[in-house]
Structure formats: structure tokens, C-alpha cells
Write a structure and sequence with these properties.
single chain, 5 helices, 0% strand
Amino acid sequence: MLVYVIIAIGEILLGGFIYIFYDPQRRPGKTTFYRKWMDPDAIFFDLEKDAHVIRKANKIVLQFCLFSALIMLINGLLHVYFNTPDIRNILVIITVITVLPLRFFYIIKKKGT
């Protein structure tokens, strides 16, 4: 059960990282190298104009990661106490692959409307 708790904490930390690191208000120094090569938001979006949409997308990703961590804990409880199949690897892969596309698709969808 400890493994499931550690994975759930990791998923929450992933969502927190996205929520804090990609926040337009909390950016590190605005160097040209950082903006052009390491910041995907600055390449595709206007950070000042789309700040509220970016913050909302980050919040949705954090909520997704919290939900995924909850599903991971439920999976752990069911596997340990009721001997159901273990799907933790599938859940982790789904979370990691879905986080950034979910964020960008939400931003693109809200910018278009």
C-alpha cells in the first residue's frame, strides 16, 4: 500500500509543478534564451493577454492530477484488500501522457471561443 501512496503523492506533485511552474505571474527572469527555447507558452501564446486562460488550464491540470491520485489510492485499496487486478502502471502512464496535452488543448479551445 505504501507504493500506491508514494505514487499518488508523485502525481499530486506533478500537478503542483505544472500549476506553479507554468503560472504566468510566477515566471523566472525574462531572458531571451529562456523565453524562446524553454517556455512553450511564450512561443504559442501571448502571456499577458491569455494569463487568465493559462491559470485556469493549470488549475484543471492540478484537479486532474488530484483525481488521478485518488483513483490510484482506490486502486491500491482494492488490490491490497480485495485482490483485484493491479492497474497502477496504466494509471501512471495515462496521467503522465495526458497532463500537458490536456493543458494545451484547454488553452487553445478557450482562446478560440
